[in-house]
Amino acid sequence: MSDADKISVEKGPSGTDTPVSSGVMQELHAAENDFEVFKRSDDLVDFRTVSWIRASLIYMKTIFALGVLSIPLACAQIGAAPAAILVVAFGGLATYHAIVLGNFRNNHPRCHSMADMAGVVGGPILREFVGGMFVIFWVLGTGIGISGSTVAFNALSNHATCTVWWGFIAAVVVIALGSVRKYQHISWVTTLGFASVFTGVFIVVIGVTTTDRPAAAPQEGPFELGYYAVAPSVSFSTGMSATLTIFASTGGSSAFLPVISEMKRPKDYPKAVYLCMAIVNAAYLAFSLVVYRWCGTWVASPSLGSAGETLKKVSFGVALAGLLITPGLSLHGAAKYLFVRIMRNSPHFQTNTVTHWAVWLSCTIGLGIVSFIIYEAVPIFNYLLTLTSAICCAPLAIVFPVVFWMYDHKSWRTGGDGQNVLKMAWYYTMIVIGIVGMYICVAGTYVVVVQINDAYRDGTITGAFTCADNSSS
């Protein structure tokens, strides 16, 4: 029996909780406290209050907005069939690796994030490296969310003020949302956020199917829709950019881990993952292919602008809450890691003291400011998304989960105790998957950096901290 099994409350034959004495309950809490990062005690703030349904909603909101805003453009770049294959493949891989991370966490006590897991495998140096990458990834993710929110503000206001000001307003709201201390409390707004983005995208899907031609296409005379099952000619740069865009849509599984430490029953984590990924991947596939089928090469980025000005305003207005909540969750995840890293062994860790709140708010406000600066430096939504996917998402979502799995399955290299050929084959398959992840990281970073450099040179990006609407490009 694993440690995770030992800490769970026993169930009776009917599935109800079996009554236990106070002494047994104290022993259970003691076992939990040995295993978990956040302790349970009458003298401490209880962070472990998230149900698995709430956890699943947090996961959905963390990853859902990016895909529906960006995958239709990836479809236009490489065609419907390759895009659909990549959505299914990356979605399945992300689901499997999310479970791998959860299993590793439950095999090694007191792991709060991937950084702690890296510490188990490679010691303090690897722990700090992965921790830094985790923070960078979710700070960049926060910048992406600020970018999407700024596009919405510009659309709703008819560009009533400088884009920098809209970005600043979005950043302030995001910092406020991210500063909510517990996942349980922030989870209450994730339901609203997921529903708002889902409804906003659904409005666009209906809108594009009821018009004679895409809103961005010539409104008179013949035109080429540009819909292809497989795009006729795709350059390496374009193909890699589309791959990174689709990969990033489900590559945020590293954010799932800190939530486990705040779940009532960490053993319910797989249920939360399966529910989240089933809904999100089905929505990605359906929404993206429909928008691409009706818009072709005239699809907008972000995709909520694909159905014309009126529906653009309606969809952005409906989805605005979700577009702000997503970066709030990203910021919260990065700040929570940093907070735990700084305060874990402090008496202020789970207490309502001035020191506790000062450190927590310093983490959220500081990282929020960095996110805003990054957004202004790379203000085009799609470039910022693909850059994030290449630099951090590939290592965190593919390479390191493979490393962790191999650490816990060393015996599979030779087939295990029974010399099982299937185990051996899977071991070497995981190595191949890890190599693919490293290739996506290196090649993707090179491609995106070249694209951003070209965009600055040809004027697509007009400059940092300017009022030009770069974000909607």
Anisotropy-based shape:
globular
CATH class of the domain at 48-217 and 224-380: Mainly Alpha
User: What is the distance, rounded to the nearest whole angstrom, between the alpha carbons of the first and last residues?
Assistant: 54 Å
**Structural class of the helices, strands and pairings?**
mainly alpha
Radius of gyration: 23 Å
Strand content: under 5%
Count of helical regions? 14
Mean pLDDT: 85
Low-confidence stretches: 1-20
Task: Give the name of the CATH architecture of the domain at 48-217 and 224-380.
Answer: Up-down Bundle
Order of helices and strands: HHHHHHHHHHHHHH
Question: CATH superfamily of the domain at 48-217 and 224-380, called what?
Answer: Amino acid/polyamine transporter I
Number of strand elements: 0
Membrane topology: Multi-pass membrane protein
Protein name: Transmembrane amino acid transporter protein-domain-containing protein
Region (Disordered): 1-22
Subcellular location: Membrane
Give a structural overview.
The protein has a domain at 48-217 and 224-380: Amino acid/polyamine transporter I (Up-down Bundle). The chain is built from 14 helices and no strands. It has helices at 3-6, 22-35, 52-78, 80-107, 114-157, 163-178, 183-209, 236-250, 256-260, 269-295, 309-343, 354-377, 381-408, 421-458. Helix 4 (80-107) runs antiparallel to helix 10 (269-295) and helix 5 packs across helix 12. This is Transmembrane amino acid transporter protein-domain-containing protein.
